[in-house]
Amino acid sequence: MTGQGSAGxxxxxxxxVRRSTLLLLPVILLAFALYLHxxxxxxxxxxxxATLTCAGWGGTWADAIRRSLTxxxxxxxxxxxxxxxxxxxxGDRALFLRLPAVAWATLTIPLVYxxxxxxxxxxxxxxxxxxxxxxxxxxxxxxxxxxxxxLTFLALLSLYLFVRAVQSGxxxxxxxxxxxxAANLYVHLFALLPLGVMGLYAGRLLLRSGLHGxxxxxxxxxxxxxxxxxxxxxxxxxxxxxxxxxxxxxGGTAAPHWTGAMALDTLRLWSGGNxxxxxxxxxxxxxxxxxxAVRRRGLLLAALAWMGLPVALTWIVPFGQALRxxxxxxxxxxxLGLAACGLWLAIGWxxxxxxxxxxxxxxxxxxxxxxxxxxxxxxxxxxxAFYAEDKQNWRDASRLVVEEAAPGDVVYLRHEYHQAxxxxxxxxxxxxxGRWTKDNVRLLPGDxxxxxxxxxxxxxxxxxxxxxxxxxxxxxxxxVQPYFRVLPPAxxxxxxxxxxxxxxxxxxxxxxxxxxxxxxxxxxxHFWADDTLLSPGACTWLRWQVENVxxxxxxxxxxxxxxxxxxxxxxxxxxxxxxxxxxxxxxxxTVQVEVRP
Length: 597
Fold this sequence. Notes:
Layout: H1 14-36, H2 46-54, H3 61-70, H4 79-88, H5 94-120, H6 122-133, H7 136-142, H8 148-168, H9 171-185, H10 192-209, H11 220-232, H12 237-245, H13 260-270, H14 275-295, H15 297-313, H16 332-354, H17 360-388, H18 394-404, E1 410-413, H19 416-426, E2 441-443, H20 448-454, E3 459-465, E4 470-471, E5 474-475, H21 476-480, E6 484-486, E7 490-495, H22 498-501, E8 510-520, E9 524-529, E10 533-534, E11 540-547, E12 549-554, E13 557-558, E14 562-567, E15 573-581, E16 586-595
Parallel strand pairs: 1-2, 1-3, 10-16
Antiparallel strand pairs: 3-8, 4-5, 6-8, 7-8, 9-11, 11-14, 12-13, 12-15, 15-16
């Protein structure tokens, strides 16, 4: 993790640094443009609605802390949500909700250059920054209102500060490293993984150097810095322990450990999102590894540890999370840094082959243009597929409901995040301000049919993913029949992807957001007697079948909607079946039984 220079042994000159810095500016602008492109074109989806909710939207600043620690099954660190709350003060728009991700993704680009320049040289650092700028996987999370780009930035900042601290031994660098690492733990608990890697590396340095000589005077500094991190994280410790004691660990979904196929899928995602990119990037990694194994073996081992140890640590720490690629996104810059090293070696090799036909500088420029065009050809289709992709379309679903709902209608949703999403969009449509609140936008109860049966309103809307049609308590149709009928849903289909939007490009997988309009069936009341003419002392059976009503009484006593009652009239008598309809109105049916000698 330490060292200076480039893929070659020379140190950059001041003029070269200026040129590299000038070249870095368009790379940063390119990344910023890719992150901003179509930023508000897509509706917020489930994970982003979680951010909206945990950021305290519609509440107070204190809610941005309370909700993140109490609403999810597993407590979430609140720092990113507090920052998002600050941006939401600018207005209720998806743009402001997603801007923090854009900002952290953009800031990562110069940080990659700084770290790459220090470890592998300014040219390799510049190439690494460019590869990250056009990486479809990072563009995806640079546009998503989640904390993954902030996690990456702070992990990379911690690594940069760690390298500077190891190289200089100065206390200021160790203190800055501790602060950055602790801050990252307040963003995402998976920040434990890069911190663990750096802790293991610091321990290795201590064991190799021993407690004598020059290192003895500075050995206590990394130990103090690493000890300072949990002290700074102490306020979150009770919630961390709560997650560790949870049956699913720190995650929300129990999942098996990674397999070789899952690791290969992750590398494909990091390599432009397709098989061609995977082949090219793996070739570049082989070139870099072969070069560094001879010139910088320690650096190569450190880079491999940064990429491999986080996965290994998940076997030790009970995260219990489905190990998706986005949780290890902090590995991506180092992965691309090694690829950039291989790319620079490939440029040099092609430039040497071109020397008989052109000057050295022209050959280098030609080789660089050729290989960068290849990188663009790899990333381009995946970027285009990402920009064309959509997820659950809560924006259009809310528009359908607010345009067609009658006064008094009620909307039911499965989760508090869905509730926040509907309210977020519904209030933005013309004439809807203040119409929709949590009073008429409700969470689905366990017994949906009973909730409808006891409600005062006659119009209901359910907004659920298509697979979510099977609700707690049984399938939707089974719950609401025979009192209601479910109208054909208006489906907002979008080309989704498996593993929660982590595979780029067409996949054949569909995610559907369905809006179900639920209407009450017409009430049906049938009341009769088996015999309406009796002799003295005889009896008859009163029978009734009642559907789509709220309450049934026979002569003032509550009865079932479909039942019978044996009557022994002493004389001619009338019997009244009274029903209360779903809208609160009351009607009745009568049967006259005559008794004759």
